[in-house]
Design a protein that fits this description.
It is a single chain. This protein has one domain: Ribonucleoside hydrolase-like (Inosine-uridine Nucleoside N-ribohydrolase, Chain A, Alpha-Beta Complex). It has a ten-stranded mixed β-sheet, sandwiched between helices. The chain is globular. The protein is built from twelve helices and twelve strands. It is α/β, with parallel strands linked by helices and 338 residues long. Helix 5 packs across helix 7.
Length: 338
């Protein structure tokens, strides 16, 4: 079951550019940082994603690649068939002209859907001109530990990779911060007043608890904010009709996803987007301007709920929007470049 299953059951813009700088020399899984001081002005980012189940991860990846504030140093895949997810990531990076970004295969889990598989039929990881790490967890650890400045982990799926990385090298928590699309605090899916066991948490509560409790800064977008982001009307059409190769690939994947996913709810890919949960996590990697932020003690329960608890570690939570239409406009501008 994917996030859409849980949904059913739980009831100032910046010009878009793509940084083409080389990501540095690599030997094995040890990554040597050779970036210039200009690149260091950007935010070093690692994306951990379950791309290929819900389509919002694909939107989030496109937004990340279109964000000049972010220096993407690694993408790791998690949950389900992580090799399928790595193939999807690699092909999208190739379309975007970003084969400087390495891809790490994360910890596989059974029984996750693969509705975008037709888009990567016949595409092998050996076809990717960039670097592919079979042990994505080790690559994640090495990337953080070799960075000359603190890294930002943007996690938009369940987080077994992050739990494993913390177990292998606890010091990564001293050299990184965690930003996630996780939880349901005061609102559930579709803005419901009933909180939910949000998918990314409920799939692996123990891993989420480990990530939240680690001694790094944690910021999350729960369903309260990310669960109501959707593009419709002229905003959506501007993205659908954009001629950029990456955006064309995004919309192609969206059309395939609506044909193959059991949880699309009758979405029409010619008229509207799905809920774009993960795009808010990408935004939080470089800005909080449009969001209402609260520091709350958050406890993860064994059944996947995120409960306010004053005795728990304080987490920065985006619990409301200052201006949701402005974020929608920003997202469109970022993706289309106009």
């Amino acid at each position: 079951m994917n996030r859409r299953g849980f949904l059913r059951l739980s009831t100032g813009s910046v010009l878009s550019t793509i940084t083409a700088a080389c990501s540095g020399k690599r030997k094995g899984t040890i990554i040597v940082d050779t970036r210039s001081s200009d690149t260091h002005k950007m935010v070093p980012v690692i994306l951990d994603t379950d791309i290929g189940s819900d389509i919002d991860d694909t939107w989030a990846l496109a937004m990340m690649l279109k964000s000049p504030e972010l220096d993407v140093r690694l993408i790791t895949t998690d949950t389900g068939d992580t090799t399928y997810r790595a193939r999807l990531t690699a092909r999208l990076l190739e379309v975007a002209g970003r084969t400087d970004i390495p891809v790490g295969i994360g910890i596989p889990r059974p029984d996750a859907p693969s509705p975008q598989a037709p888009w990567v039929e016949g595409y092998a990881l050996s076809d990717y001109p960039g670097t592919v790490y079979e042990d994505g967890v080790s690559a994640l650890v090495d990337t953080i530990m070799s960075s000359s400045e603190p890294a930002t982990l943007v996690c938009i799926g369940p987080v077994p990779n992050i739990q494993a990385a913390l177990e292998r090298e606890p010091r990564i928590a001293e050299r990184a911060r965690f930003i996630g699309m996780h939880g349901s605090i005061r609102r559930g899916y579709d803005g419901s007043k009933t909180i939910a066991a949000e998918y990314n948490v409920a799939q692996d509560p123990q891993a989420c608890r480990a990530a939240f409790s680690a001694p790094w800064g944690v910021t999350i977008t729960p369903l309260d904010t990310c669960g109501i982001v959707k593009l419709e009307g002229e905003k959506y059409l501007a993205v659908r009709d954009c001629e950029d190769a990456l955006i064309q690939a995004l919309i192609e994947n969206y059309r395939i996803w609506t044909q193959n996913s059991a949880w699309t709810g009758g979405l029409d890919p010619e008229k509207e987007s799905s809920i774009l949960f993960d795009t808010v996590a990408i935004y939080l990697a470089f800005s909080e301007e449009l969001l209402v932020m609260e520091k709350l003690g958050i406890r993860v329960t064994d059944d996947g709920y995120t409960v306010i608890d004053d005795a728990a570690k304080g987490i920065n939570c985006s619990t409301g929007w200052k201006n949701l239409p402005a974020f929608e406009d920003f997202l469109v501008q970022r993706l289309t470049g106009c």
